[in-house]
Amino acid sequence: MNTIQYLLRWNIVVMLLLGITVSRVASLDFSYHNQNQLEIFLHNASFYYPDITDLYSIGKSVHGVNLWVLAIGKDIKSHVPLRPNVKYIGNIHGNEAVSREMMMHFIDYLLRSYGSNQTVTNFLNNTAVHVMVTMNPDGFNKSILGMCDGYIGRDNANGFDLNRNFPDFFKENKSPVQLETHAVIEWIHNQSFVLSANFHGGAMVANYPFDSYNSTSQTSGASISPDDDVFQHLALTYTRSHASMSLSPVTCPGDHFVNGITNGASWYTIIGGMQDYNYLSVGCMEITIEMACCKFPYPSQLPQFWQKNKDALFNFLTRVHIGAKGFVTDENNNPLPSARVCVVGREPVHFRTSKYGEYWRLLLPGSYTLQAEANGYLTTTVSIVVHDGVITRQDIKLMKSGFSKGFFNHAVHLPLLLLSLIMIFL
User: What is the residue-wise DSSP string for 267-295?
Assistant: First the structure.
């Protein structure tokens, strides 16, 4: 138990001894919360909602600040088969502070709504939501309130832009991987996330992969991913649920985005972006949300940001329940971890089963052929139909290849069998 947890617990005990009623988490105010206030909020949430929260740190910043994540959902401390993991990451650029507060208010909203709002309750009963309020606490600590532009506080304590710091699949990224970046990389490789968004400021738009070009010959225009249709759907889900992002192409001075969305490279290219890394390394469908024209507006504007983003933050995550899901197992129904699952006709991306043999594939309504393969097993294809508003359950069973199933199961072994019989009778 750390110091904050210790003090919180003794404070509650004293209140009970004095006969003071202990209520749940106090109403969250609309202000910018420093690191101590943020940690008290998170530990308080974890203490008062123990059945639906799990507070953990994925690592530390350069200055030794914990990178906290609050996971929310029914039986969140246990593995629930085929329950998808989703995540939000705020405040990657320290001076883009609106998302930091929106993440806190989103946590507060989910916790207060569980058990009273049927839609939220049903969602949390079937989804594990992981929220990292800030990925860059060191940068936020030196940012300047009221500064709408500029770079003070943008980078981490070592002076590196964390959204240019991930390994890049198309271009060489010479930037040394920072502590914060390494922590996120380890996290996403261990958790099997299905859907994600990271948040920024300085514009108002939903940006989807790719952020860079996978060909040296292309230098302009959109960089289209194999799942471009799904990414556009995800981006539009956010902007059309937002109070104003999709209503006008000019959301901020100088910007022009139809329906409030853009392909990353079509806007501007970056190397080492987090959304491309999520998609290409672990098959997590991530987009980038720019939440505010001003990077660090005065707190008086925070209530309107919350009202505009509240529905969008929730509705976006519900999209994790589209497409197909299931188990990939062997012939004895044993789960196969790290099996590859792809959609025939789409360029293969790194979609693999979890350590429990689970897979999720976000898809729009239509007919598809899924292909599953694993080392030592025969590749298997199955046809599925995805309907609107409901996820298709499709388990896939793989049969072992080679001699493991006996000579008679594969015609390729027949000559060897005949040769063996001849040798016996010679």
Answer: H---SS-HHHHHHHHH--EEEEEEEESSS
How much is the pLDDT for 23?
42
The CA distance from 200 to 33, in Å, is 17
pLDDT of residue 406: 42
pLDDT of res. 143: 98
Q: In the CATH scheme, what is the code of domain 3-321?
A: 3.40.630.10
Same fold, 3-321 and 324-405: no
**Residue with the two structure tokens 């994790």:** 320
Would strands 285-292 and 203-208 be described as parallel, antiparallel, or unpaired? antiparallel
Is residue 290 part of the annotated active site? The answer reads: yes
Question: What does the alpha-carbon distance between residue 10 and residue 293 come to, in Å, rounded to a whole number?
Answer: 43
pLDDT of residue 7: 52
pLDDT the model gives residue 383? 98
**Furthest CA-CA distance within the chain:** 97
Which tokens hold the place of 8?
């919180």
Given a cut of 50, the residues of the chain with pLDDT beneath it are 4-5, 9-23, 403-414, 416-417, 419, 421-422, 426
| Angle, alpha carbons 199-204-206 (nearest 5°) | 60
| 324-405: CATH number | 2.60.40.1120
Return d(Cα 349, Cα 371) in angstroms, integer. 12
Model pTM score: 0.90
The sign one gets for the Cα dihedral 121, 123, 124, 125 is positive
- Report which residue type is found at 398: L
pLDDT value at residue 24: 56
Task: Please identify which residue in the block is written with the tokens 């959109």.
Answer: 222
Domain ranges within the chain, ordered by starting residue? 3-321, 324-405
Is-contact 53 76, C-beta < 8 A? yes
Distances in whole angstroms, Cα of residue 251 to Cα of each of 47, 242, 254, 260, 293: 40, 12, 9, 8, 8
HSE-CB for 409 with a 13 A CA cutoff: 9
User: Please, what is the Cα angle at 321 between 41 and 335, to 5 degrees?
Assistant: 100
Contacts of 208 (CB under 8 A, 6+ apart): 225, 228, 231, 232, 234, 235, 261, 262, 263, 264, 275, 287, 288
How many angstroms separate the Cα of 426 from the Cα of each of 379, 407, 414, 419, 423? Answer: 39, 21, 19, 11, 5
Which residue out of 290, 331, 347, 373 is catalytically annotated? 290
Answer for the pair 285, 325: CB distance below 8 angstroms, yes or no.
no
**Structure token pair of residue 379:** 């590749």
Which alpha helices (DSSP H) does 242-369 contain, by range? 264-267, 274-282, 302-318
> How many angstroms separate the CA atoms of 410 and 299, rounded?
69
